[in-house]
Amino acid sequence: MDYFSLIMDMVSIVGQGVAHIFFVSRLTGKERRLWHFAVYCLTLCGIQGLALRLGDNGIFSIATGILGLYAINRFAFRNQRPISWLAAVLAFYVSQLSFGFINSVEAVVVPPFFGSPLLYLLLLVAQVLYFVLCICCYRAVRKLLAWTEDSQTPYIGLLLFPGLFFFAAELYILQTSYSFFDPAISLAEVGKHSTLLLLQIMGLAALLCTLYAYRQLCQGFQAKAELQSLTQAAHTQKVYITEAQARYEQTKSFRHDIKNHLSVLDGLLKSGKLEEGRGYLKRLETVSEALSFPYQTGNPVVDILLGEKLGLAKEIAAEVSLVLPKPCGIDDFDLCVLFANALDNAIAACRALEGAKALRISGKRQGDFYLLAFENTCSEEPLPPAGTGLSNIKAVAEKYHGAVLTEKNGRQYYLSVLMNTSALQ
Questions:
Q1: φ, ψ (nearest 5 deg) of residue 175
Q2: Most CB atoms within 10 A, among 69, 166, 184, 327?
């Protein structure tokens, strides 16, 4: 029985280690490697051996196991601190909860078989059921809480407190009620273990409800961001329409008067008044330039946006070397969202800096892909967390099967947006 127990313990530890790594990697969307399993399983085995020497009742091994899994999350998977802690606590909580479920059943079913060969078979079945139940619970948690670095991270640390509470309650149940089995099982004991099983089921249900509420909260944040994006895009379109109407009226008026201007210019030239003619021609040139856009990108929506945004930020030295392809393949509405958010962020960063302020916008096409690059000056302070503006830009890039890359180097900030111009054609 001693060898059997030792083998079962080793299988349980290794199985838990493998399940933990699978869970946290799938939960956080990070790629797992073979050395992750090896290092973590060896760590668990070392912790278990040390706990046996110290006569630990389980608290030490679980606490150090959580620290080990946190280290894997933080330094191997490169997850943020709150996510690393939460993933580690959830991984251990689910495994301990599944263990508690099986213990509740074992406490009633196993004692009558003490001394019987069937005991080994029952323990093997219990071990298999434990892993099956653990996997099912992990899938339920992962379905409710799967996130990426930018999607469900707001207030993620708040989930750590209910997770720790459920975990502490489960540990208390395991330490006080399942430290040993009584060979003589009574009806009262059956009722006690049934009640404990029900409490643990309610604990799992409470955790899943908490995760579901958090997911709904995150979806609310996302919907709010999308609404802000639509509102901003609608405002930009309204500005574009107003600007286009104004330029149309100006152009219409200029075209109506062009014959009169030409007649005046012809009269000045015929009468030999060359200097007056040159002056009049310069005034006509000034009027015609006022009717054109200050930036020519090949897209009127972007031209007006650039003129509006940069025209209000005259303290920033702006350089635009951008020619959008024709046909562009990117909807004007999406261009509004992209350029409006990128320009707002860049202008805000420039204004937060004392001294020279500069903004450079460029574009480059290669095949079906088009790369937009925004480079602006910024302060040397750490950047704030990604807000709605960058999220809107990423949403547009993903719509066109592209990607967004940001980089900060001293007082320079770089934003690159890659899009497939044929994605929606």
A1: -75, -30
A2: 69
How many DSSP H helices and E strands does the chain contain?
11, 5
| Token code pair at residue 224 | 């709010």
- Please say whether the beta carbons of 88 and 23 come within 8 A: no
How do strand 358-366 and strand 369-377 relate by DSSP bridges?
antiparallel
**pLDDT per residue of the chain (425 residues) written in tens, 0 to 9:** 467 888 888 999 999 999 999 999 998 888 999 999 999 999 999 998 888 888 776 788 888 999 999 999 999 998 888 889 999 999 999 999 998 899 888 888 887 887 788 888 988 999 999 999 999 999 999 988 866 544 445 567 778 888 888 888 888 888 777 655 555 567 777 788 888 889 999 999 999 999 888 888 877 877 777 777 677 667 766 766 666 666 656 666 666 667 666 676 667 677 777 777 777 777 776 666 555 667 888 887 788 888 878 888 889 999 999 888 877 888 888 888 899 889 989 999 998 888 889 999 999 988 889 999 999 999 887 766 656 678 889 888 998 989 999 998 888 999 999 998 886 65
C-alpha Rg value of the chain to the nearest Å: 34
> Tokens in use for 249?
């009226």
The type of residue at 406 is T
For domain 300-420, give its CATH number from 3.40.47.10, 3.30.565.10, 3.40.50.720, 1.25.60.10: 3.30.565.10
pTM for this entry: 0.60
Domain limits, the chain: 2-228, 240-290, 300-420
Q: Please enumerate in sequence order all residues whose Cβ is within 8 A of that of 351, keeping only pairs 6 or more positions apart, or say none.
A: 313, 315, 316, 357
The answer to whether the bond into 294 is cis (omega within 30° of 0) is: no
Measured distance CA(213)–CA(219) in Å, rounded:
10
